[in-house]
Write a structure and sequence with these properties.
The protein is an alpha+beta fold. 33% of the residues lie in helices and 26% in strands. The strands form four sheets. The protein has a seven-stranded antiparallel β-sheet. The protein has a three-stranded antiparallel β-sheet with strand order 2-4-3, covered by helices on one side. Strands 7-8 form a two-stranded antiparallel ribbon.
């Protein structure tokens, strides 16, 4: 988790220079606090300490407990296709590195798979149970959670109309906020979205993949097989009330058959999904039942 590139647009309150500094400091404190809990790059973060711990039961903070619980919900409804313990597999494929990605051996994948699986962790209030070598990565939901925290902060300050963006995850308050869905291959957008009082997150396989022997491997790894998913999804955009939900759903959408994820979304309140696939060089679009009501 690296919370950079934050953008806030507000209208309603004419703040003084000092007020703006206080607000900016408040937002930076929120991001710093979230990094201190959920970062997988900071060796001193709470989540890193949890992952390095050899204890079978670990007492965690309220926020870590809350977000693990929420993430486990998505692990369950996706039947384990979305899995917050998959990071070691991403690592052996070198998708988290700047060096060229490689195909690990079957032996290596099989060994790592022994420690992967969301069923190897459970949480009861603030007590986390996990297998020794199982690690947790909440990057697929923590940025959205950061947006939600900033949203509540600005609401408490009395702002009535604003748009928050953290690493591409969006949440708005008030009317007439328009956001664009980026075209996954071309320079431009595919749709304009009325994002009034909603959140939006997009995940894609188009910006982190490599080709080997004419086969393309994307960074979304199947936690059951240890190999990248072969679904032809290019991107998935999810609109939801809370940004943490949109964030997790957008990642989950890349791990499942498009019909499966659309079926799940259609049963949800205040959640809509738009998926782009490439089939034989042709762009195919999938939408949940009420997604079009957000299109401008």
């Amino acid at each position: 988790l690296n919370l950079t590139g934050t953008g806030i647009k507000t209208q309603t309150i004419d703040a003084s220079v000092n007020d703006k500094i206080v607000i900016k400091d408040g937002i930076e404190n929120i991001l710093s606090d979230i990094n201190s809990k959920f970062s997988t790059y900071d060796n001193d973060s709470e989540l890193t300490r949890i992952n390095h711990s050899k204890l079978k039961q670990i007492t965690v903070s309220d926020e870590v407990s809350y977000l693990i619980n929420k993430a486990l919900y998505y692990c369950e409804i996706s039947d384990g296709h979305y899995d917050i313990t998959v990071a070691p597999l991403v690592k052996i494929w070198n998708f988290e590195s700047l060096v060229k990605s490689t195909i690990p051996s079957y032996k290596t994948i099989t060994k790592v798979l022994q420690d992967v699986g969301y069923n190897k962790i459970s949480i009861d209030h603030n007590i986390l149970n996990k297998k020794n070598n199982t690690t947790i990565d909440l990057n697929s939901i923590a940025k959205g959670y950061a947006v939600d925290k900033i949203y509540l902060y600005l609401k408490d300050l009395g702002f009535e109309r604003f748009l928050i963006e953290v690493g591409g995850e969006l949440r708005s308050n008030g009317d007439l906020w328009i956001a664009g869905i980026q075209h996954p291959e071309l320079d431009g957008i595919v749709s304009k979205i009325n994002l009034s009082n909603m959140s939006m997150a997009t995940s894609g396989t188009y910006n982190n993949n490599f080709t080997h022997n004419n086969l393309t491997y994307a960074h979304i790894i199947n936690p059951k097989t240890g190999y990248p998913y072969k679904y032809s999804h290019i991107s998935a955009t999810v609109i939801a009330k809370e940004c943490s939900d949109a964030d997790a759903f957008a990642t989950m959408a890349l791990t499942m058959n498009s019909d499966e994820i659309i079926s799940i979304v259609n049963k949800m309140d205040d959640v809509e999904c738009y998926i782009v696939k490439i089939i034989e060089n042709e762009k195919i679009e999938f939408e949940s039942e009420n997604f079009n009501k957000f299109i401008v």
